Amino acid sequence: MAKPLTSLSIFFPCYNDGGTIGSLVLTALETAEKVTDDYEVIVVDDGSSDMSRTVLKELAELYPQHLRLVFHEQNRGYGGALRSGFSNAQKDWVFYTDGDAQYDPRELLLLVEKVGPNVDVVQGYKIKRHDPVHRIVIGKMYHWAMKLLFNLKIRDVDCDFRLIRKSALEKISLPQDSGVICLELVRKLQASGARFEEVGVSHFFRVYGKSQFFNFRRIAAVGVGVMKLWWQLVVLRQG
After folding, report:
1. CATH number, residue 13
2. Antiparallel, parallel or unpaired: β 8-14 and 93-97
């Protein structure tokens, strides 16, 4: 029986995710094989200082045909890691999620069920967010503010669990280096005419490492980045 996707790139941005990235890679390899015969798994290590690279190099020796590694010698930020992933992905469909295991790559199968000739993006949304209370509150405020500012049509602007047609990605540019790239990605895909489907997915407590976002300096930087992006995309209608 024919498999549902012609080809698939799966990638993970990784920054000090040594306790989780190995199991994610193995799960991704197993899941990809269920949906296509032509697949690759890419990990973009964004300057990790833990054992992430040791784990990844060992896995690359075991799975040289399907696993590719991209190493940033200096941290480029979440946006920089995503841009590396998108630029290195070679297949017809591109799926990405984070390297901290707060999402289950096996639920990619739920997204694949929505793929069809009239679909360019299958976007996940968290069925229930499992995070500390302060993160849930801030997340809800951020969600509604971004939907309003950027006129986003999706249910969850903060869910990095996405399957995107490569040809849709090739229509847009993504210069952002911070986490603001997620807003840029969805807004530009939406403006380019990309057709969306949405699927509820599970969200899990972080079991290793800590969030790189929830400190004052990063929140302030994201706030400035959001307003600059809003001015560019919404007010000036550039990009």
Report:
1. 3.90.550.10
2. parallel
Range of the domain at 213: 8-235
Q: How many domains does the chain have?
A: 1
202-216 pLDDT, tens digit each: 999 887 666 555 555
Amino acid in the structure at residue 139: G
Q: Residue 47: what pLDDT?
A: 97
Gap between the Cα atoms of 143 and 152, Å rounded = 10
Q: Return d(Cα 38, Cα 3) in angstroms, integer.
A: 10
Q: What is the pLDDT of residue 129?
A: 85
Interhelix angle 216-230/181-191, rounded to 10 degrees, is 20
Of residues 154, 155, 158, the one with CA closest to residue 142: 158
Does any domain span residue 3?
A: no
pTM value? Answer: 0.92
